[in-house]
């Protein structure tokens, strides 16, 4: 599977899209370059939320690997998003080109860093990594597969996953989340939320007995993506996802002008709920316009 990113990640194809090497190589040849910013944290969250799920071809029993290819320093918190993936048992390889930040690559990647972090001076030099990276990836998959025990619980849908996410009491700055817990209570929940059009994912960790959360200090008039992820000692349930928008801030109304003189005027309006200050801007009307 492959996703390309700038300020907004874009899935190019899912894990289940192609079944032969030739098909994948043809898809790579037809790939359109996506220019723009470098929101690596948002991209990693996109991969978790959109690409590493059963509907996109991710098999529950398969090892999960993410290869991050970047040529710049992230403009959001890539480390927090990467830690979320690593906490779920997803291994990250970080490949830097040109202006990539070596320290950031080492933060994002999984251990051991001597195997998972690579940096080259220019794009043509990536070809020298292909053979080595292939061998390392195959070896890591084999090594991790051998560590799995027969009695390790796997994701079993409703047994381990919450349902019925309800988002209520939405204001310009907050919203309330509530959900129905799974049959088997988790050890803890991780609630991840972030603006859909780009921004640093934030995370709240709750005890497994919880079934609701109040999100505060949100940005007004903004669409948020929310994920509730249950975690067990040796397994992770399906994330429960939702999307909603915070309300716009209220506006002042009924602007009136009075007490006009040659160099002054008085303004009055109906107050905006919750406002603590007002900014009043005044400029001369252009020639020909009504004063």
Automatic annotation (TrEMBL):
Keywords: Extracellular matrix, Secreted
Alphabetized Pfam families for the sequence: fn3 (PF00041), VWA (PF00092)
Keyword Hydrolase: no
Domain Fibronectin type-III residue range list: 161-250
Cell compartment(s), UniProt: Secreted, Extracellular space, Extracellular matrix
Domain of life according to the entry: Eukaryota
Residue span(s) of domain VWFA: 1-133
Primary subcellular site in the record, as a coarse category: secreted
InterPro entries cross-referenced by the UniProt entry: ECM_Assembly_Org, FN3_dom, FN3_sf, Ig-like_fold, VWF_A, vWFA_dom_sf
Protein name: COKA1 protein
Organism listed in the record: Regulus satrapa (Golden-crowned kinglet)
Classification lineage: Eukaryota, Metazoa, Chordata, Craniata, Vertebrata
């Amino acid at each position: 599977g492959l996703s390309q990113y700038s300020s907004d990640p874009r899935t190019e194809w899912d894990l289940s899209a192609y079944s032969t090497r030739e098909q994948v190589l043809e898809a790579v040849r037809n790939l359109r370059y996506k220019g723009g910013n470098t929101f690596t944290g948002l991209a990693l969250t996109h991969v978790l939320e959109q690409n590493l799920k059963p509907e996109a071809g991710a098999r529950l029993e398969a090892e999960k690997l993410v290869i991050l290819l970047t040529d710049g320093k992230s403009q959001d918190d890539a480390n927090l998003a990467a830690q979320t993936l690593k906490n779920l048992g997803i291994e990250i390889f970080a490949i830097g080109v040109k202006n990539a930040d070596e320290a950031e690559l080492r933060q994002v990647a999984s251990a051991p860093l001597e195997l998972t972090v690579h940096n080259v001076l220019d794009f043509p030099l990536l070809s020298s990594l292909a053979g080595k990276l292939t061998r390392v990836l195959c070896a890591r998959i084999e090594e991790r597969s051998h560590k799995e025990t027969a009695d390790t619980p796997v994701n079993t849908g409703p047994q381990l996953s919450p349902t019925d996410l309800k988002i209520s009491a939405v204001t310009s700055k907050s919203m309330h989340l509530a959900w129905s817990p799974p049959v088997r209570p988790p050890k803890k929940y991780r609630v991840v939320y972030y603006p859909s059009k780009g921004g640093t994912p934030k995370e709240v960790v709750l005890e497994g007995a919880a079934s609701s959360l109040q999100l505060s200090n949100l940005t007004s008039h903004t669409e948020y993506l929310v994920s509730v992820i249950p975690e067990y000692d040796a397994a992770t349930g399906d994330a429960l996802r939702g999307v909603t928008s915070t309300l716009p801030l209220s506006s002042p109304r009924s602007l009136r002008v009075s007490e006009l003189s040659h160099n002054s005027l008085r303004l009055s309006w109906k107050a905006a709920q919750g406002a603590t200050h007002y900014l009043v801007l005044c400029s001369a009307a252009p020639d020909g316009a009504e004063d």
